[in-house]
Amino acid sequence: MRHLLSMADLDRDDIEQILNLADSFAEVGKRQIPKVPALRGKTIAWLFYEDSTRTRLSFETAAKRLSADTMNFSVGSSSVNKGESLRDTVETIAAMGVDGVVVRHRGAGAPHRIAEWIDASVVNAGDGWHQHPTQSLLDLYTATRHLGSLDGRRIAIVGDIKYSRVARSNAIGFATLGAEVTFVAPQTLLPPSLEGWPVKVTHDLDEVMEDIDICYLLRMQLERQEQAVVPTLREFHEEYGLTTERADRLREESLIMHPGPMNRGVEIAGEVADRPNAVITEQVINGIAVRMAVLYLLLGSGLNLVDNQEAVA
Q1: 41: burial class by Cβ within 10 Å (0-12, 13-18, 19+)?
Q2: CB-side neighbour CA atoms (13 Å) of 200
Q3: Are residues 75 and 160 in the same domain?
Q4: What pLDDT, in 10s, does the model give residues 156-176?
Q5: Could you give the CA distance from residue 99 to residue 105 in angstroms, rounded to a whole number?
Q6: Residue 145 sits in the same domain as residue 219
Q7: Chain centre to alpha carbon of residue 195
Q8: What residues act catalytically?
Q9: Rounded to an integer, what distance in angstroms lies between the CA atom of residue 112 and that of residue 219?
Q10: Which of 6, 98, 100, 149 is buried deepest, with most CB atoms within 10 A?
Q11: What are the CA-CA distances from residue 262 to residues 290, 296, 308 (Å)?
Q12: 73 lies in which domain range?
């Protein structure tokens, strides 16, 4: 594996390899000094053209725990503001000797183009409405830790499907591991076509509540919406939000998931987000181990450094 650009590039064996390796790196995170020399001597650059808290900090933590050097690129203080193109920016950074580039960009397909321009490995940290593969991988990791095999499990992905790269990645990821995925949204929040998508669709959240193993809620992507897609956010919450009453209808072992940041009172009631079966904070924690696994598989030397019990400073 040279790049990670889309969940569509991974088969079941690929996903399971990453999740199994993430188990080893989760153990590293529990050590007194949570660090291994797996990527010592490697340099990773962060190329974030969109705001990010969880993804960026998670990748940075993952790289540091692997002993990699990092190069931070800030769009706000860069030559992008002088009109420099994406290609020129990327090639400039690559010329400084980076081994990997983690990129987030508002343009769908931008990471694919970058992978064509440079020799370094490229990780897609979110491109427009298109894909967010490491979010999907950490969601799969979190789900399997609680539920075991996902074969035959029922997943409801609820809310702003149309503008969500997480929905696209998770539809592929969960289906690849054998789950049955249902999109739950009003027509205005669904893509124009779902042909070829491995999903079912319903407009009624209440009809699936008792049958699902995971209720996966999506943030309303207000910054991407070009027109009003629901009458009001209050009405959206009443029809498609995980209210206290709906959460009470979930089975005890069913999980509540959300990629963050949450809009409490919109897609999820504030009290529901704090319930024991809401694993939203755990998703964030697991993201570090999963991204360690991804970076190691892309950039690692192949040496068995994961099991090295002697952590390094």
Answers
A1: exposed
A2: 12
A3: no
A4: 999 999 999 999 999 999 999
A5: 19
A6: yes
A7: 23
A8: 54-55, 82, 104, 132
A9: 25
A10: 100
A11: 21, 30, 37
A12: 7-132+284-299
pLDDT tens by residue, 195-211: 989 999 999 999 999 99
pLDDT score, position 313: 34
- List, in sequence order, every residue forming a beta bridge with 215; answer none if it has no partner: 156, 256
Residues 157 and 270 in one domain: yes
Average pLDDT, the chain: 91
Residue 305 in tokens: 């450094």
What's the CA gap between 177 and 192, in Å, rounded? 26
Check if the beta carbon of residue 28 is closer than 8 Å to that of residue 34.
Answer: yes
Q: Do the domain assignments include residue 291?
A: yes
**DSSP sequence for 161-183:** -TT-HHHHHHHHHHHHTT-EEEE
pTM comes to 0.92
* DSSP of 262-280: --BTTTB-TTGGGSTTB-H
**294 and 276 fall within a common domain:** no
> What number is the average pLDDT over the span 287-302?
91
Least confident of 77-81, 97-101, 249-253, 303-307: 303-307
Residue whose token pair is 């009405």:
235
